Amino acid sequence: MDRVWWKESIVYQIYPRSFMDSNGDGIGDICGIIERLDYLKDLGVDVLWISPVLESPGDDNGYDISDYYKILEEFGTMAEYELLLKEAHARGMKILMDLVVNHTSDEHPWFMESRKSKDNPYRDFYIWRSGKNGREPNNWGACFGGPAWEYDEETSMYYLHNFSRKQPDLNWENPKVREAVFDMMTWWCEKGVDGFRMDVISMISKDQSFPDGIVSGGLYGDSSPYVVNGPRVHEFLQEMNRKVLSKYDIMTVGETAGVTIEEAGKYAGNDSHELNMVFQFEHTGIGDGKLGKWTTERFDFMELKEILSKWQTKLQGKAWNSVYWGNHDQPRSVSRFGNDSPKYREISAKMLATCLLSLQGTPYIYQGEELGMTNIYFDSLSSYRDIESIQCYRELTEAGLISEEEMLECLKLRSRDNARTPMQWDGSANAGFTSGTPWIEVNRNYPEINAASQADNSRSVLSYYKKMIQVRKSELGLVYGDFILQEPEHAQIFAYKRVCGADCYLIACNFTDQEAVFVMPKEFSENNTCLISNYDRGNYNGEICLSPYEAFVVKADK
Ligand code: GLC
Ligand code: CA
Fold it and tell me: How far is Cα 526 from Cα 521, in angstroms, rounded to an integer?
C-alpha cells in the first residue's frame, strides 16, 4: 500500500464571503478564517480549500479575477493571507488555493489590453471571432444565461465567455497564456500554498472549429461537446504538471464538469501525470431535466447508488476519487440528499456523514455541512444574490419556458445561494457571523442550528462529524480499502464493504424515512465491532431492521 497524504486527508471547503466576518462590514474575510482555525482543527480536518480571495470586481463572487497577485481588499491583505498560511500550518493544516484560469475578469489588465485592438500583444490571450450574418459566431449559450459571445464595439468582434460576460475565457492555445498561468502558479507555490482546486479545468481546451451546438430545452446551443474535455486539455495539464505541479509536494483536484469515468482515468490516473483527483458531477445532477438543474425533481435513490458505486468501482486501482455532497455551487447536502424536516434533519445529516467518510476517495466537507445547515428557501427573487440564479430566472421566465412560481420553487431547491448563507456560529444576532449587516440573509433557523450549541452537545451533528472523522483517521482501511457494493437491488439501503488486507468493514446507510430490513453478510453476522452508528444500538448482527436514516460502520473481528 502506497501511503499518500492527500489520499488520507479530509478537506473542508471555506466560502470566505460567508464564513466569518472579523470587521463588521457584513462580508466574511481572511482574519475571520484565522479566528476560526481552532474550530477547524478541533473538527479534525486536514486541508482547507478556500474559494477565491483575489482581486475581483465580484461579478461571480470572486470567480472573476482581475489580479492573480493581489488579495481583494474586502477579504484583507497579502500579509493577512500569509498569516493565514502560517497559522494553518502551525496547526498542521494545509491550504488549498482555488485556481480560476479558464477565464479572468473583463477588468483584468490582460483583457483590457486585448480588447483595445486586433494587433495588441494581448489580443490572443482571449478568444475573439467575427460575427456571422450580423449575429454571434455560433449559437452557444453561457452557463449563466444568454449567449456565450459578447460583441465588443472597439474592434467589432465577439469574445467568448462560457460564464458571465464579465468572465472572458482565456485562450489556452496561446503558449504565452499557459506560461503566464504557470508562472503565477509557481509564485503561489513558492509562497507556500499546499495545492490547487482548479475551477472548471475541464473546459480550458476548445474545439477550434467552434461548431453550433444542439438546442434542446433552452434558448441556446449546447457547447459542452466542444468545450468540455476538449481536444488538448490533457496535453495542457501534462504541461502544467511538468512545469509546475511536479516540482512541489502539493495536492490538486480538478473541477471537471462533464467528466466521464474514462476521462477521469486520464485526468487523475495513477500514471497520467496530470492531477491527483477530480470532482465528478453525476450525482449532483440527478433529476436534471430539459432546463438543466432548474427542476423540482428530487433525487432518485437507486440512481444515486448506481452512480456512486460506479465511480467507486471503476476508478479502483486506476485513479483516485474525491467524494462530496455539496459545495458553494450546490444546495445544502441535507436538503438535497437527506431530509431537512425537523424530525429527520439531524439523523439524516449524520447518515450522510457516515456515508461520505467511509467511501474511497478524499472526502470534502462544505462549511456548515458539519452542522446540518439547510437550504434557505427564499420566498422572493430579491433575496437572491447569485448571478446564475438571477440571470437564469429572468431568461427562462421571460422566454415563457417556466412560470415565475415554478422557477422560484426550482431556486429553493437548487440555487447556489442555498449554500452561501452565512455560517451559523452561535445563537446571537446574525448567527455570530457579523456584527454588521450580512451581505446575504442569515438562515432563520440559526437559533436551533449553530456551532456553539452543537459543540456542547455530544449528540449533535457536529459531534457526530468529529467522531466519524476520527473513525476514518484511525482506520486506514476506510481510506485505501476496496469498495464492494452489497445488495445492489435494495431500494432503501446503500451498503458496501471496504476490504483492506485482513481488515474488513461493512457500512450500511438507510437513505429513506422508512424502516428497512437488512441482513448482515456472513462474515459480520456475529463477531464485529461497531465503530460508529447514528442510533443507540448495541450491535448489528443477523437480520436487522434499520430505522429511518439509520447508518453504521462495523468492523469484522479477526
Ligand atoms: C465553477 C465555480 C463556480 C463559478 C464557475 C465559474 O463552477 O465553482 O462558483 O461560478 O466555476 O468560475
Ligand atoms: Ca469583513
Answer: 10
